[in-house]
# Entry
Amino acid sequence: MNTASADKETFFTKMALGLMLAAITVSSLVLGVVAVVAMNDGSESAAGATGGATVVQVHLTEFAISMVPDTVPPGDVVFQVMNHGSVEHNFSLPSLNAKTAMLKPGAGEDLTVSGLEAGDVGVLCEVPGHDAAGMKGTLHVVDGAIAASASGDSSSGSTMAWQQMDKMMADVALKFPAKTQGTGNEELEYTMSADGYKVFNLVAKVIPWEVEPGKFVDGWSYNGLIPGPVIHVNVGDKVRMVLKNELPESTSLHLHGIRVPNAMDGVDPYTQKPIIPGGEFTYEFTALEPSVGMYHSHHDAQVQVPNGLAGALIIGDWKTLAMSAARGRVKDTDGIAEQENMMVLNDSGTIGLSLNGKSFPATTPFALKVGESMVVHYFNEGNMTHPMHLHQPSGLVVAHDGKLLETPFWADTLNVAPGERWTVVYTALDAGVWAWHCHILTHAETPEGMRYMVTALIVS
Ligand SMILES: [Cu+2]
# Structure
């Protein structure tokens, strides 16, 4: 391990321990902040403007464009563009008629734009569909903005001084868990109908959703939540889901991984007509077997699902089911998990790279005591496979797509492909704050620090 990553690991641990203290008193958080600022005192010497062009580091990934800095002074700008993704991308400023060539994964190009004037400049990737999936942004050209110079004096050869980078990373990390409006995955209450159905009411509507602190996007929600509310039912239950459409376009609802009559499969126009704006549709089925399912749109789904129209539907008591599959293999003696948690993955649309509808530092941490276990259901509602990694403890994978495995297996990093569900038992062995993130590194870190698909498990 090189020194830089070792330092970062140490720092994260310090930050996270600070976080635990912060849970006890607010004043300890303040002390923690003071301590970290003191620790990063060297940051005052971060590179500033020394004349010449401003350098902006541009990172292209699926499906995001990160620019550091994204606010520059008027004048000349050199965009150092790198494709960190796994498919071809380019970087274009359409209003200025400037763009790079199509860049293969791992390729880069410097793009110089002269005489930028104050104002906002839109940027995007020109591969069809990539801007709609999230590869767009805005460069702010502001009089008096601090420039990082192309002829900068960083001894590392990097255009961003390491002190500046460390400070940015610490600033972001210290905000975790940042409070934002709205939390997905709330349990949905039902009413009993006279004919013996558990009735769940859903309303699909577009809402402002705070995906990270201060960043509001148009979220496509069920009941104002992203992910949508969690629905729990028992084997044998008669289930009725009434969906009202308040979206600007038609929709439908598919019960992914749940055994239902064909007429309830939610695939318009085959099994039903689209639910038009203002319309309503009732889905009915009997819960025949234990399942880890998801309900999501099946109409204009490549827009509606990543924009937020997805939620978890669980049939059966998985705190017991999962632990019975893990019996004798995890150090939990009472046979019932203390928690059941949802981990909904997304990478596209207006929500973008996120865990349970939030991007770090707005993600919600999880907490266990030593000896306790949690059952985690991963759901991938995005367009890419995400290798999900919990630093410690490692997990016992007990079910795939809602079916118990004949041979559960251990994994500390688990690929979750689009549409898949994996159920994992994590038992807490050692106290501490354990990072929990997607291991496609561009889904977890940027030059400004941790972002996107990162949260933590706090073990006390
Ligand atoms: Cu990922």
Summary: Residues 54-160 form a domain with the Immunoglobulin-like fold (CATH 2.60.40.420). The pocket of copper (II) ion is lined by residues 386, 438, 440, 443, 453 (CB under 6 Å).
